[in-house]
Specification:
Length: 315
């Protein structure tokens, strides 16, 4: 059985976040130009039972027994988590043996579905993405799969905000030249001010190499100006805000190359981030990552992150 639990990953927003990957690699409703992983191999719009919830819950239970309690258990990974038809069962099942709060990071594309909104209500925190309220910009950024309807997303987000009892935080990925105009930001701010139940907004940028290498990262100054222009009365933070990273994992065992690759497939990491996740001896960790690069299993990107090399990228 493929490993579906990864981390804990150090996160500025979620502390030590233990990840759950609910879909096969790159099975998604979007093919986002800013994605830090790879292009979407398996576009999808219908929910499926990719695996039985009990399989993931058993793996999670074993993982939790071996690590310090995480700050959050987070459904994210290499695809869109709401595509899993058993999401609600998974979230309810976690509560039977873990007291850690649960977060779902979603692109929000399926919020027009009542069953998705109902499932997400079992999470303590939901982080949907909304980069624009204009369909042409949305299409340009996300390149959605056929069958995803933009107006259903906006209406679904409003319905979810009215019914959801937890923390609702929207992520806006700023793509210079696409969604950073005055019109885009003013209209987005207007939508947010009328959105029921919205607790916070997070402005993100391509701080890691995106799939579309022509996409330029937003600067800290641009994000700060957008933050002011949104004119919101709720907290707005950015990818460049200096929040402390969670403490490094205390472990004397160095990870195997396969354990590192399993993490990198969901979350490209720098050597420092890998050390925070796995702990152990830094020299041994450096040696393992060097071997992965030399063998062609991974690459070190210009931004300093390590990422797995797919067969197509090995040339």
């Amino acid at each position: 059985m493929a490993a579906r639990v990864f981390g804990p990953v150090p996160s500025r927003r979620l502390g030590r976040s233990l990840g759950l990957d609910l879909t096969p690699a790159k099975t998604c409703t979007y093919d986002c130009r800013y994605c830090q992983l790879t292009a979407t191999d398996h576009p999808a719009t219908e929910r499926q039972m990719f695996f039985q919830p009990a399989e993931l819950l058993d793996e999670l239970r074993e993982k939790l027994a071996d690590i310090e309690p995480p700050d959050w258990i987070t459904c994210s990974g290499s695809g869109e988590p709401t595509l899993h038809a058993g999401l609600g069962s998974i979230l309810k099942g976690i509560r039977e043996f873990s007291s850690a709060p649960i977060c779902v990071i979603t692109n929000g594309s399926l919020l027009g579905r009542e069953d998705v909104r109902t499932d997400l209500c079992f999470a303590d925190r939901v982080m949907p993405t909304l980069c624009s309220v204009h369909e042409e910009t949305w299409r340009a950024i996300h390149q959605p799969a056929t069958g995803i309807i933009f107006k259903d997303i906006l209406q679904g987000l409003q319905m979810f905000g009215r019914m959801y009892p937890g923390i609702l935080e929207i992520e806006v990925f700023i793509c210079p030249g696409l969604n950073d105009t005055e019109r885009e930001i003013d209209d987005l701010g207007s939508f947010f001010r009328q959105l029921p139940g919205l607790d916070a907004v997070y402005l993100n940028a391509a701080v890691r190499n995106p799939v579309d290498t022509s996409l330029l990262p937003a600067s800290p100054e641009l994000l700060d100006s957008i933050k002011r222009r949104l004119k919101l009365q709720i907290p707005v933070s950015t990818a460049f805000d200096h929040s402390p990273l969670p403490k490094r994992t205390e472990s004397k065992r160095s990870p195997t190359g396969q354990e590192i690759l399993d993490l990198l497939r969901r979350h490209p990491c720098t050597l420092e981030q890998l050390h925070r996740v796995f702990g152990g001896d830094l020299r041994q960790l450096t040696s393992v990552t060097t071997r992965l690069v030399e063998s062609g299993a991974a690459e070190k990107r210009p931004d300093g992150t390590f990422a797995p090399l797919s067969s197509s990228s090995k040339g």
